[in-house]
Hints:
This protein is mainly α. Helices cover 62% and strands 0% of the residues. The chain has 6 helices and no strands. The chain has helices spanning 6-11, 24-33, 37-44, 50-63, 66-75, 85-96. Helix 4 runs antiparallel to helix 6 (85-96). The N and C termini lie close together (8 Å). The model has no long low-confidence stretch (mean pLDDT 94).
Amino acid sequence: MPKDTLANFKATFSSTTPPMDLSPYAKALWYAGKGDWNKSHEIVQDIEDRDAARIHAFLHRQEGDVSNARYWYNRAGTQMPDISLDKEWDALVLEYI
Length: 97
C-alpha cells in the first residue's frame, strides 16, 4: 500500500485480511485497529527494534497494563504519550503506512 491517508487505511478494514504490501508495523496496527489485539501483539513481540517496541508499548497501554507499557516505551527510547489511545494509534499509523 503506498503512503496514504488515515481514512484510506481505515477503509481497508472492510477486508478480512490486511493489504499485502504493509510492513509488519503497519500490519500490526491494522490488526489493532480491527480490534485483534492478540494478532497485533503476535506480529510485534518478536521484532527486536525500536519501532516494534513502540507499537508493543502502545498495545500494552491499550490493554491497560501500564507498567508493561512503560517498559516497552523505555525500550523504544520514548515516554508514554499524554494523549488518547485513539490519537496515539492515528499517529502511529501515519508514521508506518
